[in-house]
Amino acid sequence: MDSVSIEKFLETKSSARVVNVHFKDRSTVTGLFVNLRDYDELKAKNFWRVVNVKHIEQWEQTGNMELSRLFNGASFTKLTASGKQ
Q1: Residue 85 in this model has a pLDDT that exceeds 60
Q2: pTM as predicted
Q3: For residue 34, which of 12, 4, 10, 13 has the smallest C-alpha distance?
């Protein structure tokens, strides 16, 4: 997916905090896209920082960037809203 499509999904699905990220070559990741100081730079290169659903509570308490992982948007096949909030 291109960065415009990903950003559009994130803006239109703002009520859906937790998102399922489907990939071409790996299993689906469920998590939260996070906006940190490098967000604009990464977005320009179609890279996205995602906190896995199992780390969201800890992320909200600490804001620790090490809980997030970088993913290349080109490897996404689709994004869907998760039932988890």
Answers
A1: no
A2: 0.88
A3: 10
CB-based burial label for 79 (10 Å; 0-12, 13-18, 19+): buried
Q: How far apart are CA 52 and CA 85, in angstroms?
A: 12
The residues, any chain, with a CB within 8 Å of residue 29's CB and separated by 6 or more, are 20, 21, 23, 50, 52, 71
Helix (H, G, I), strand (E, B) or coil at 4: helix
Q: Which of the following CATH numbers is that of domain 3-81: 2.30.30, 2.60.40, 2.60.120, 2.70.70?
A: 2.30.30
Residue among 43, 57, 48, 53 at smallest CA distance from 4: 43
> Per-residue DSSP letters for 7-64?
HHHHHHTTT--SEEEEESSS--EEEEE---TTHHHHHHTTEEEEEEGGGHHHHHHH--
Residue boundaries of the structural domains of the chain: 3-81
